[in-house]
């Protein structure tokens, strides 16, 4: 892939990316942006569902979003430790797809895998741009423009938000594709995700939207200042 993609969004588990930024991804896909989703694990330790069902749900969700592709690194669930091997695997994906912008979960999340996912991506984001840094497939170095964080659990003051008013219904549709996670399946057990989780995510997006004068928005964080050109006077993104 010589030209590269626009967006590479990482998650520890399938559904992480969708919880945090499905509305934005759907919006950008409709605008023609090329999007890759990379799940680090197959969520094999999930209380409900199994690897096979999660694969099917992840594919359905990506299709609804309009993602160009979805890949999985098959790293161990609850084993996303900051090792050289894991960093190189993530850097390999970055070099392969050459994204303009990268997204990963907010580092301060109740689930340790989410924070570790960010830290792995943060390390790989830097290493992928080093010329002498070696990865499995010998892809040339690539330096993405920015690394942003999206929210999964909890609420943090965002550095910027994206208006998803026209895409909130699609976001809900995408989340509902994860039937094994947001509903208690036969033989399953209640979890935080089955106790009105989608409604709480939608409420958070509504609150972010209210802060900027739209109905729904998704919040993001940046580790460096954002350069505003025409956006300062409200012309939009």
Quick description:
Its cofactor is Zn(2+). This protein is an alpha/beta fold. The protein has helices at residues 16-30, 51-65, 84-97, 112-127, 168-176, 179-182, 197-212; strands at residues 7-11, 35-41, 69-75, 101-105, 146-150, 160-163, 217-222.
Structure, described:
It is a single chain. The chain is an alpha/beta fold. It has a single domain (7-233), classed as Rossmann fold, CATH 3.40.50. It has seven helices and seven strands. It has helices at 16-30, 51-65, 84-97, 112-127, 168-176, 179-182, 197-212, and strands spanning 7-11, 35-41, 69-75, 101-105, 146-150, 160-163, 217-222. α4 (112-127) links the parallel β4 (101-105) and β5. The longest helix is centred in the middle third of the chain and has 16 residues, at 112-127. The two termini are 27 Å apart. Its cofactor is Zn(2+). It comes from Lederbergia wuyishanensis. This is Bacillithiol biosynthesis deacetylase BshB1. It holds the Pfam family PIG-L.
């Amino acid at each position: 892939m010589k030209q590269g993609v626009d967006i590479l969004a990482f998650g520890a588990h399938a559904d992480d990316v969708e919880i945090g930024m499905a509305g934005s991804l759907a919006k950008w896909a409709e605008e023609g942006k090329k999007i890759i989703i990379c799940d680090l694990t197959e969520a094999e330790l999930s209380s409900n569902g199994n690897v096979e069902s999660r694969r099917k749900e992840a594919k359905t969700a990506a299709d609804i979003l309009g993602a160009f592709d979805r890949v999985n690194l098959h790293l161990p669930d609850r084993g996303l430790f900051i090792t050289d091997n894991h960093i190189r695997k993530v850097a390999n994906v970055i070099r392969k797809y050459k994204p303009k912008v990268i997204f990963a979960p907010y580092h301060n999340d109740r689930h340790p895998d989410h924070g570790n996912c960010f830290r792995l991506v943060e390390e790989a984001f830097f290493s992928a741009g080093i010329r002498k840094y070696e990865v499995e497939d010998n892809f040339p170095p690539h330096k993405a423009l920015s690394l942003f964080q999206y929210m999964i659990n909890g609420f943090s003051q965002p550095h910027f938000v994206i208006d998803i008013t026209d895409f909130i219904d699609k976001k809900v549709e995408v989340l509902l594709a994860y039937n094994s996670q947001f509903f208690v399946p036969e033989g399953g057990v209640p979890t935080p995700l089955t106790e009105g989780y989608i409604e709480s995510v939608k409420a958070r997006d509504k609150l972010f939207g209210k802060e900027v004068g739209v109905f729904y928005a998704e919040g993001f964080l940046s580790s460096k200042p954002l350069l505003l050109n025409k956006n300062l006077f409200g012309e939009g993104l």
